[in-house]
Every structure is written in structure tokens, then in C-alpha cells.
From TrEMBL:
Alphabetized InterPro entries for the sequence: MFS, MFS_dom, MFS_trans_sf
CDD domains: MFS_ShiA_like
Lineage: Bacteria, Bacillati, Actinomycetota, Actinomycetes, Pseudonocardiales
Chief localisation class: membrane
Keywords: Cell membrane, Membrane, Transmembrane, Transmembrane helix, Transport
Designated name of the protein: Sugar phosphate permease
Subcellular locations according to the entry: Cell membrane
Keyword Kinase: no
Membrane-spanning residues: 64-84, 96-114, 120-140, 161-185, 191-210, 249-267, 279-298, 310-329, 335-355, 375-394, 400-420
């Protein structure tokens, strides 16, 4: 195995903190809101933004430019991840969580207020790009802090389950976004895409109130109290742990790039082939609803079978799913299209997302954990951000076969990355946690 095997990192409490479930749910609520905001942009880009902001182009070119704007937000995510990683390892996980949610909320509401091209000309797409960059920075700051807060509050032997709960906030956000667009689809004019963004204001208020009640990570508090907080976590993780950064990056690409192809691009593909918006949005909403449970269960499975074992399953399914996905989508059947989204999302994407929170966190030491996980996670987002653009260009040249092969190629990359990345969780780890708990109980009783 390339590189050294990282130790399974654990906190001082084998059974986790007293607030472990509240933290997991609180971080999941924030993840829900940020996903609603960020992913809602993808839905609007696929269905509405081409005509609203790039009306002078032919339909295919307008779609390309709309997806390019979508990609800009993903391109900004690594910078957000770098900033959040540095601050999360320097001043704490909680301030980053609250700040990222507030910034994302303001940016999303502003999208709902934007003038269209018909109203202000070229300034409309310019403003859209600027706000999308702000969204990207905020979303890039979100994941590392939310996952690590959950991970570091969770019991040793259930970190897959608890981080899976937080990760489940993402399909909840996807579900809410698509329900909002489904119900607004029949509204007149631009209200069909404005209303879902404006409704984000309500969610943001709820999210901020929830996150303010979440306690700081106990592991970070210990680092701070012992004076071991890293002075420059980004430099340290790139110097000492760059191999794990690269491995996690490749592991992440298969999930995020696969999502961009099998959800964002596929929605546009189906619409261009005459599939009603209501069918596509319902199918994706149904898959997202299943994904809430699926993400959590995949995370729990990684506590039983290991992180890598579950990841290998998801990557293998992704590898063989590319061509069947498009063949089935082309049937035009609402039932079959729904099945396509369920397999693409609840199986391919969720099996990977449900494991990432625990596996990525275990690859890095506590004092550089936010920097390491955020950097690898968010750099990979650049690939996914421009995947719909690349897939649309491939489709123009090769038809659906090009995007299908690209999806399978992502699966192959993930499979290779999983095989060369160390397993961080084994049954012996559970035994060690139980032994430590027993020792703690005995020690307390003797005092």
C-alpha cells in the first residue's frame, strides 16, 4: 500500500460526547440549507437560466453558458475550503459553520432578486457569476466544518453512522430544492425560478438558530487547551500528508463528478429530449427522499464492513452503470426514469457520500484535519462543477455515449483510488474502543 497507514484517530470519549446526536442533526440541518441553496442553482441552470440570462444564443449554446456559470461556483469552492480549513484548525469548527451558512443564505436570496438579461443586458450574467462565486466560497467552507464537528463528537465505533447522518442533510436539501422547483414550475414568468431562491431566507434563519446551539468540537478544545493548535495547518498538511490529500481528492471525484453527470446533466438531457419537467423533478425528488435513509445506512455499513469495502461497492456500480443509465433514460417511461435516478443517486452517489465523512476524517490528524479534508474535498468540486459543461460538449459531438463513458471513467478512477487508500476502520478498532471504555469506567470507579 502506498504511503504510511494512518492511525485511527479517536477522541477522549469512546462513547462520544453527550451532545453527539444533537451535533449530528444540527450539522445536518446546516448541510440541508446550504445544499438547498447550492444545488438549487444547478436545477435552475439546467431548466431556466439559459433563456433568462443568455437569450441571444441558440439553445445548446445557452445551456453550455448556463453550465459554465454553474461551474464557476464549484471552481470557487477550493478557495472556500482552504480559508475554512485554516480557520477551522486555528480558531475552531463552530465559527466557520455559522459564517458559511450566513454568507450562503445572503447570496442565494440575491439570486432570487437578480434582473434578467432582458432587463439589464450583459450585467445580468455578470451579476449571476459574481453571486455564484460567493456561493462557491460559502459552500466550500461548509463541508469540512460540519463533518468534523460530527466526527469529533461521535463515538469511536459509530463515526460512520453519525457522519452519515450529517451527510444525509445533502439529500434533504436536494429534495427540498426540487420540491420547491416542482411546485413553482407552473408560476408565470421568472417566478418559476425566483421563488425557490427567495424561500431560502426562511431556512437560513432556522439554520443559524440551530447552529448557534451546537457546541465546539471536544477534540479541538483539547488541542487548544494543550497548546497544540497548528499555526499553519494548510502548509503542514501539504508537507506531511499530501499523499492522503491526493487519494481523498480522487475518491471524491467519482462521487461529485458522477452526481454532476447523472443528475445535473441528465436533467438537461431529458428536457432536451422532450421529457416533461414534472417527470424529471418528481423522479429526482423521489430518489433524494430515498437518499436520506440510504446515506445514513451506507455510513453505518462502513462501521461494520470498513470504509474501503463500502466504497469499492459504490465505485464498481458506477463503473458499469454509465451506458445502461442513458439507455434506460431514453425509454421515456416515467417509472424507468425514476429507477434511473434512484440507482444513480441512492446507490452510486450515496454509497460514496455516506462513507466520506468518516474515511476522510480518519486519514488526517486532528490538528490539520479540517485543512486536509476540506482541501481534498473541495478541489475535486472543480471537476464536478465543469462536468455538465464537458458532458454537454461531448454530447454535441458523440451523442449520449460520450457522457456515459465519462461517468464510467469516474467510476474507474474511484475504484483505483479506493484500492490504493489505506483502510482506517477495522473490527479491531471497535474492540480497542470497548477496551478503552472499560478502562475508563474502572479508573473512575477506583477514584
Amino acid at each position: 500500500m502506498a504511503g504510511s497507514t494512518p492511525p485511527v484517530t479517536t477522541g477522549p470519549r469512546p462513547e462520544g460526547s453527550q451532545d453527539k446526536l444533537k451535533v449530528a442533526l444540527g450539522c445536518g440541518v446546516g448541510a440541508t440549507i446550504e445544499t438547498y441553496d447550492f444545488i438549487g442553482f444547478g436545477t435552475a441552470a439546467a431548466l431556466y437560466f439559459g433563456s433568462a440570462f443568455f437569450p441571444g444564443s441558440d439553445p445548446l449554446s445557452a445551456t453550455l453558458m448556463s453550465f459554465a456559470t454553474l461551474g464557476v461556483g464549484f471552481a470557487a469552492r477550493p478557495l472556500g475550503g482552504v480559508i475554512a480549513g485554516h480557520l477551522g484548525d486555528r480558531i475552531g469548527r463552530k465559527p466557520v459553520l455559522v459564517g458559511s451558512l450566513l454568507i450562503m443564505g445572503i447570496a442565494t436570496v440575491l439570486i432570487g432578486l437578480l434582473p434578467t438579461y432582458q432587463q439589464v443586458g450583459i450585467w445580468a450574467p455578470v451579476l449571476l457569476v459574481v453571486i455564484r462565486i460567493v456561493q462557491g466560497l460559502a459552500f466550500g467552507a461548509e463541508w469540512g466544518g460540519a463533518i468534523l464537528m460530527t466526527f469529533e463528537h461521535a463515538p469511536w465505533h459509530r463515526r460512520g453512522l453519525y457522519t452519515g447522518i450529517t451527510q444525509a442533510g445533502f439529500p434533504v436539501g436536494l429534495l427540498l430544492a426540487n420540491i420547491a422547483f416542482l411546485f413553482s414550475a407552473d408560476l408565470d414568468g421568472t417566478w418559476a425560478w425566483r421563488l425557490p431562491f427567495l424561500l431560502s431566507a426562511v431556512l437560513i434563519v432556522v439554520g443559524i438558530l440551530v447552529r448557534l446551539k451546537v457546541d465546539e468540537s471536544p477534540e479541538f478544545e483539547e488541542l487548544k487547551n494543550s497548546g497544540e493548535v497548528s499555526k499553519n495547518p494548510l502548509v503542514e498538511v501539504l508537507r506531511d500528508d499530501w499523499r492522503n490529500v491526493l487519494r481523498a481528492l480522487c475518491l471524491r471525484v467519482v462521487e461529485t463528478g458522477g452526481y454532476a453527470l447523472s443528475v445535473t446533466f441528465l436533467m438537461s438531457y431529458l428536457e432536451s429530449n422532450g421529457t416533461p419537467e414534472s417527470v424529471t423533478l418528481f423522479a429526482l425528488s423521489f430518489a433524494a427522499a430515498l437518499g436520506i435513509a440510504a446515506t445514513t445506512l451506507w455510513g453505518r455499513a462502513s462501521d461494520t464492513f470498513g470504509r474501503r469495502a463500502v466504497y469499492l461497492v459504490g465505485c464498481t456500480v458506477s463503473l458499469v452503470w454509465g451506458i445502461p443509465m442513458f439507455l434506460l433514460a431514453d425509454t421515456g417511461s416515467a417509472v424507468v426514469i425514476t429507477i434511473v435516478f434512484v440507482i444513480s443517486y441512492a446507490v452510486c452517489q450515496n454509497s460514496l457520500a455516506g462513507v466520506q465523512g468518516a474515511w476522510f476524517s480518519e486519514l488526517f490528524n486532528a490538528k490539520t484535519r479540517t485543512a486536509g479534508t476540506s482541501l481534498s474535498y473541495q478541489i475535486s468540486a472543480v471537476v464536478s462543477g465543469f462536468t455538465p459543461f464537458v458532458a454537454t460538449a461531448l454530447y454535441a459531438q458523440t451523442g449520449w455515449l460520450g457522457p456515459a463513458v465519462l461517468f464510467s471513467a469516474y467510476g474507474l478512477l474511484g475504484l483505483i483510488a479506493a484500492l490504493i487508500t489505506s483502510e482506517t476502520w477495522r473490527p479491531v478498532s471497535v474492540a480497542a474502543a470497548s477496551a478503552e471504555k472499560e478502562k475508563t469506567v474502572v479508573g473512575t470507579a477506583s477514584r
